[in-house]
Amino acid sequence: MTRLAVLGCGRIGQMHARNIARHSRTTLGAVFDVHRPAAEAIAAETGARITDTADEIFSNPDIDGVVISTSTDTHVTMIEAGVAAGKPMLCEKPIDLDLDRVNACAHLLSKGEVPVMLGFVRRFDPSHGAVRSAIANGDVGELHQVVITSRDPDLAPEAYLKVSGGIFRDMTIHDFDMARFILNEEIDTVFASGSRLVAPDLMDRLDDFDTVSIIMTTASGKQCVIGNSRRSVYGYDQRVEAFGSNGMASSENRKPHAMVLSGGGFSGKAAPCLDFFIERYNDAFNAEIDAFADVVEHGAPPPVSFEDGRQAQRLAEAALKSATGHRPVKMKEID
């Protein structure tokens, strides 16, 4: 059994801890959180040991790998400690809110001695993966357009939004990674538009957007359109569409059940979408832990690399530059 530890026991850290504890190939060796009651709660549930510091986890020879789900501003520090300890790591996104710091961390990792996997869980979703396979198999012909829809059920708390880095770095970053995953080609140009429609006063205070659209183009002319909103009254809206010369492949929303009701004066009444990301991507999160176990146990290359995280971060910076500058941005402008 691969012994993993979790740093950070907030919502996503708790989920990772539970998944690791339940997984057939992994065991939860230890947990840590700066807010000790959070660590105590998940330790009581899973039987994991609590440590007083992150360093105790990195220095423990019985821990084979580490999942980093601490606050974003600590990710690079944790990665640096993991590299020094030689521990394979699965790090939640984004790597950091400062691209210069991300680039410096990339330089540290350039020797490739310690694997770092990024937590872009949507790559592990079976339906999104099937869209990518359909393109690779030639089922849609020559790929022309990718359309990604991602809408949250509601705004996160203001305290979270204040430190999130803004919608492009916090929310759309998943879609930037999905765009690269589906297109299998790097982006050349980004044009983004941002609006304050869901909570205008809050967005004014935070200098952020709650509704954004992005058009991205590759050097060969392929297009990707991303639509985001912080509020979707019908649930967590997650769809991917790939359109090509011979057809289209799409990944649709998931619902609690597939029953559709029809009756007098109506038809096609269905359940709302699943409520949020943990429910929607439950299977994907488990597959992600399985993939990380392969990295730790067998030395497999991370299926989502640190460089994938860095490139998604570059796209987020380009989108912010475009939305605030009201112009297209070439990726060569983003160091």
UniProtKB/TrEMBL annotation:
InterPro entries: Gfo/Idh/MocA-like_OxRdtase_N, GFO_IDH_MocA-like_dom, Myo_inos_IolG, NAD(P)-bd_dom_sf. The keyword Ribosomal protein does not apply. GO terms for cellular component: cytoplasm. It is an enzyme of class 1 (oxidoreductase). GO terms for biological process: NADPH regeneration. The keyword Membrane does not apply. SUPFAM superfamilies: Glyceraldehyde-3-phosphate dehydrogenase-like, C-terminal domain (SSF55347), NAD(P)-binding Rossmann-fold domains (SSF51735). Its EC number is 1.1.1.18. Residues 3-120 form the Gfo/Idh/MocA-like oxidoreductase N-terminal domain. Residues 130-249 form the GFO/IDH/MocA-like oxidoreductase domain. Keywords: Oxidoreductase, Plasmid. GO terms for molecular function: inositol 2-dehydrogenase (NAD+) activity; nucleotide binding. PANTHER family: BINDING ROSSMANN FOLD OXIDOREDUCTASE, PUTATIVE (AFU_ORTHOLOGUE AFUA_2G10240)-RELATED, NAD(P)-BINDING ROSSMANN-FOLD SUPERFAMILY PROTEIN-RELATED. Belongs to the Gfo/Idh/MocA family. This is Inositol 2-dehydrogenase.
